[in-house]
Amino acid sequence: MKPTNFSKSLTKFLTLYLPGEKGMSQNTILSYKDAFVLFLVYAHEEKQLDANIIEFHQITQELILGFLDWLETNRHCCPATRNVRLAALHSFFRYVQYQSPEHGHEWQKILAIPVKRAQKGTVSYLTLEAIRNLLKEPDQLTRRGRRDLALLSLLYESGCRVAELIQLTPSMVRLEQPCTVKLVGKGNKARIVPLLEAQTQFLSYYMQENNLLEAHANQYPLFHNSRREKLTRTGVNYILKKYVHKAKQKHPGLFPDTVSCHCLRHSKAMHLLQAGVNLVYIRDILGHSSVQVTEVYARADSKQKREAIEKAYSEVAPKETPSWEVNDNLLQWLMSFPKL
């Protein structure tokens, strides 16, 4: 079957342009790929357009708008997810403007589709007490329990993303003083996050037990499954949810309805902020591109807001007690109230 202009351009976009010319990370490329998988599913199921024969002239602004609506109505995606898919499409059609300029007017109409305003949710985080109770759940008498404890402890203490955690190798961890872990985040940007010696004890035991301190194991996955393969996002989320379920049964008031791995990252940031750590340092630990991104934690910390208000409080209200409050008979007071 002869390849179409759409299939050829999409292949070059994902395999050559994004990693080669744009230098995008593998996670971003996979996210873009998922957007086009969904687009082709929509085109086939809703518009009867076969992915094998779809051509550029069949792709219109109306088709893209229909796809975005389908994401929200059929797949129940939130506006933020819709915007992520639209960003992938925008990136592709900016690219094909130079590959197929004869369709330039249609590409400009697609690029003019605006992002949808999404409601910003509140930052969900756990208290220090909740974190302590969560880390008590893994059974340290079992090999898997010790691995899970090391994983959850590092996930919280480093404030890393799940994608950063599963990419870790033993060579990226320094257990000697000063203890650090090297994390590679969005855009392949690396950062060094300091760890206290007390924070690394479970990780140290785990690495010794699994021979991950040996030179030949430098590039092995730091956290792996029973087949010695690196854990997936799904695997890490399963581990967290398992122990959250156990902890919630014992302490139901400490945990919200849903706890994600990103919730542990939020929790670390909030705890650092509440301990008085400067936002600039929190930004560097989390790997944010700007301190303005990190400011979301300052805006979400109601405890610090209350403490700041209490420190700045000056009493301005009158201290005198209204006369009717000392009068047992409110009706009598009202009747005796002087007329104007």
Number of strands: 3
Characterize the main sheet.
3 strands, antiparallel
- Backbone shape: globular
Helical amount: 40-55%
Q: Largest beta sheet: what is the strand line-up?
A: 1-2-3
Query: How confident is the prediction overall: mean pLDDT?
Result: 85
Structure annotation, total helices: 15
Structural class: mainly alpha
Poorly predicted runs are: none
Strand content: under 5%
Radius of gyration: 28 Å
Q: Any overview of this molecule?
A:
With 340 residues, the chain is mainly α. Strands 1-2-3 form a 3-stranded antiparallel β-sheet, with no helix packed on it. The protein has 15 helices and 3 strands. A hairpin with a 5-residue loop joins strand 1 and strand 2. Helix 2 crosses helix 4. The mean pLDDT is 85.
